[in-house]
User: Fold FAD-binding protein from Phytoactinopolyspora halotolerans.
Amino acid sequence: MSMKVAPRLKSRPKRYRRFTSRTLAIPRFVVQRMMLKPLVWSLTRVDVRTEADLRRLRGAFLVVANHASHLDTPLVLGSLPRRLSRYLAAGAAADYFFEVRWRKWLTSLVFNTFPVDRTGARAHSGVSKRLLARGVPLLIFPEGGRSASGRIGAFKPGAAALAIACDVPCVPVAICGAHEAMPRGQWWPVRGRPPVTVRIGAPIWPRPGESATAFTERLATEVRRLHAMNDSDEPADRPRSSKGDGMTEVRHMKWWGWGNEGVAFEYRDKPDFAPFVQQAIGLDVTAPGVSVPEFDSLEVPESRLDDEFRTELEQIVGADHVQVDAMSRVVHTFGKSIRDLLRVRSGSLERTPDVVVYPGDEDQVQRLVHAAVAADCVVIPFGGGSNIAGSLEPAPDEERVVISLDMGRMNRVLEIDEESGLARIEAGALGPDLERELGKRGWTMGHFPDSFTHSTLGGWIATRSSGMQSDKYGDIADIVRGVRVARPGGVVEIRAIPSASTGPSVREMIVGSEGRLGVITEATMHVHRVPEVREILGYFFPNWKAGLAAMREIAESDASPTVTRVSDAPESAFSFATRKESKGIEAAGANALMRVLKARGWDLDQICLSFIGYEGSASHVRYEKKLVRKIVRRHGGFSVGKSPGRLYDQKKFDTPYIRDFLLDRGAAGDVSETAAPWSKLEHLYEHTIASARKAYDDIGVQGWIMCHLSHSYHAGACLYFTFAFMHGDEPLKQYDHVKSAIQQAFIDAGGTLSHHHAVGVEHAPWLSQDISPEGVALMQGLFDSADPKRNFNPDKIIPRS
Assistant:
């Protein structure tokens, strides 16, 4: 497809000559590329990622970026190809940069600035339009000001209106981490070379007849999508769609793997990764990967939906929100476990949903549930599709019509009760969406699971999720206070009461029910004021035993960190191997530290990396850090500062991309997690490691297993294991053997079958050993009574006997 060419320079009135002057471009090049860029790149660790080929971009265009720091302009100028940044003019606040002569002269020389009115005055009206008409590309920050928190604010429509009027494309750019690298009020980056990521998206042209408001929303959505790949506080790529309007715009992860199309793990900028993987599992990552099959080559079962029932569904939600195409049904068949990906990539699609339906509100959900039960159909609620326990798939022998009820359109924060610290939120809200909406009013829910960017509130509740900051904010079972569930007879409403003595808790029955008791439509959640200070510090411990003991003592202390995490030596080594190459002072400092530790008698192969997070007022954070520092020192550890914590915070949601990278090259990698009392953790860890190694020997493969502790409680903690091996011709059989050995080790050593990944079908074989046969019978009685015809996600948690 050819790319349109934007307007080019036609004439150069005297007033605008400086913007395209070759004479001025020379000193600007010297300052930007030979002085400013090396300075900024040396004070921060800049990672530039471009999603599109910009070589065909010609003429004038707009660069539209989020704004959080004075670093943003030099970051954009230094990240764009020289051909595009040579004459790029940066918008600058007229009331600040153009009121003082020296400031105007300096910014004009360095950044080729043009004035932007942000006070309502129109003294500079038309300047940007004239520049575009003369072929000058512009850099604009549509938020109109810097965001102190780094969250992307509302976009003003000026940039979109300008692009429409001049018929030029917009290049979306997301800047992540600049607000921490050089916060508002500072004129120099913080110490430690904090990480910053600049993501450049594909050019976006305004559509024929598109309004400035609509184009603004598209631009904002794309910038937020780019930002969401790096920052936990921003939304994933899910455009809103109002009830009954237009096509269903809910976007999903790629059908063959995790995350968005075009996003993948890159190892070539991490020099230690390839040799690490070669030694760990015998995989040469430089060898060509296995190509993903073409979707058209899959044999997708025909839909069993008849025309009459389809018409009934369309009458409830609208024809645009009822989909039976093959892609929609395949996307909604599985979650994202290794088992799921191996099957979908091999074309093993025994049973898919027959129809995907997108309700727009609770009334539509209720009517859909009533119609489905009346027609004896199966209803499987679908959130983000990130589940890895088999909670989404239809039974292979299911003969009834299967409806995948995608909640993606129901993604609003409905109400915030600021006096009570409660928020009503629709069940289909993705984590980044709801955090953005809460953040606009100064609130946070504090729930950040590994799947945050691609999972929903309803999914968290249905699977008893736990977030990375659960030490302070609690698991989802602690955060949810009220819930509404659509059932055939009406809506179950659990009000948000602080505490009540009303018999067995119906709320607790809903939490973790995996859709077997009905469809969660909304929930009322605990929310908290956005903290004044948020920090994550890195620590080193001499060995795993010392790290465990320190985490236990921190849990018993007066400190209340948001995150307490320590990796064993294998996972710490993996973390070091996935770092980008360090140079200069940073590399020298790291090498010097290792020499000092070795001189002190540390076994460098046993070092354990830990992250501890703090939130609250400045004084409270100082107190907690001081208290934790004393505990860490008592166990032989020490702090390595904020820089590792910032990098962890920025990359914490990227691990699934590494799993897909390995799968592309013939290696199976997955996770299993458990929880147990403190007194049993060390034995549980050792027994699980030994069981996995024996399983590798059984199937004759070289395997790897590593672990970290997270989610600390008064009485115990979660242990999270990651394992990988090169599979042979029967990958599912080999995977089942290793996974089963790990799961059985959990039970045998006193742990639970899962701490926060749910039961689904993957973990169901161990349920009776976990909660006892009588416990299973009690739960079965609940399901039989609430769903006698087995219409709601049957065979999950407790399969048919």
In short: Confidence is low (pLDDT under 50) at residues 5-12, 231-248. The domain at 533-652 is CATH 3.40.462.40 (Vanillyl-alcohol Oxidase; Chain A, domain 3). The two ends are 56 Å apart (CA to CA).
